[in-house]
Amino acid sequence: SASQLGFIGLGNMGASMATNLAKAGHQVRVFDVSRAAIDAVVAGSEGRASVASSANEVVPGASAVVTMLPSSKEVTQIYSGSDGLLAASKGNGTLFIDSTTGEPGVCEKIAEEAQQAGAVYIDAPVSGGVVAAKNAQLTFMCGGPKSAFDIAAPLLAAMGKKSIHCGDKVGSGEAAKICNNMLLAVSMLGTCEAMALGKHLGLNPNNLAEVLNASSGRCWSSEVYNPVPGVVPGVPSSRDYDGGFLCALMLKDLRLAQAAAAQNQVSTVMGGLACQIYSLMCAHGLAAKDFSVFYKFLQDQQNK
Ligand code: NAD
């Protein structure tokens, strides 16, 4: 059934997510620090999204509020304290669904604060990227009480194809997201290396990709998002690595994984190496390129 909702953070991902909630019939009050981002969502919402002039203004009357911010830093700024979202909910039991990729520990802290303020906060980061956001095909990984997950699930269904409850502990969704992206980085870097070696052995990249994708080396990076230009049409490698999932964001996620590993004294050797490689690429001016650009980086080093 249709609800009154709030949505904060209308960037590459959030704009499409808020629009899909409105298209599903919900009334959505939206806020972003960018007025242009607000106006674009309101214009594309079939009259069901309306302008809020501050973050807190989305809260009154909303049964649930979704946030999709860059990182934990902005999440803490917006939620916490006497002038934050949690206080603005005035003990009305508002459900806050945070889809930002952030730190599990920060989510836990905010969930405690929410409880004290008479609100509920769960984490629900996403996988899928901007195309999946636009087409309501995201995967949500959620942490928090099952009862809160069950209330969130129909709203998440308007923005995604699958929602998975990762644990009763708030932050469990972020934990799963960090593991997924660490594996994605490792498999992408490995795919780039294999494709580059194959090229130097005289193999045709299309032919090698066909072999990998019919063999045990197959992965999302080789099959759906191949890093060699021309192998898969329409992915960032085929448009000089522009758009997509930026090296800077992958580095942020790998650092979250490394911090979580250090806090829990877990060895993540490949994750650590991947973190160093993305750090190096960002330092070489590739921060705003897609994360599959390691293939080009390797070629450029080879040709020096
Ligand atoms: P983005 O930078 O495009 O969007 C963030 C939005 O938040 C911007 O519009 C910004 O103006 C707004 N914002 C920042 N501070 C604010 C504040 N204090 N109050 C209100 N609005 C504020 O980022 P994105 O690509 O949409 O990603 C959002 C989150 O989703 C990140 O944590 C990212 O890691 C994660 N994510 C991104 C992708 C992807 O492919 N882009 C995929 C999965 C997950």
TrEMBL record:
GO biological process: L-valine catabolic process
Protein EC: 1.1.1.31
Pfam family for this entry, one: NAD_binding_11
Residue ranges occupied by any 6-phosphogluconate dehydrogenase NADP-binding domain in the UniProt entry: 4-167
Active site: residue positions: 177
Limits of the 3-hydroxyisobutyrate dehydrogenase-like NAD-binding domain: 171-297
Protein origin, superkingdom: Eukaryota
Keyword set includes tRNA processing: no
Catalytic activity: 3-hydroxy-2-methylpropanoate + NAD(+) = 2-methyl-3-oxopropanoate + NADH + H(+)
Cellular component, GO, one term: mitochondrion
A molecular-function term among this protein's GO annotations: NADP binding
Enzyme superclass (EC): oxidoreductase
Pathway: Amino-acid degradation; L-valine degradation
Entry keywords, A to Z: Branched-chain amino acid catabolism, NAD, Oxidoreductase
Protein name from the UniProt record: 3-hydroxyisobutyrate dehydrogenase
Taxonomic classification: Eukaryota, Metazoa, Spiralia, Lophotrochozoa, Platyhelminthes
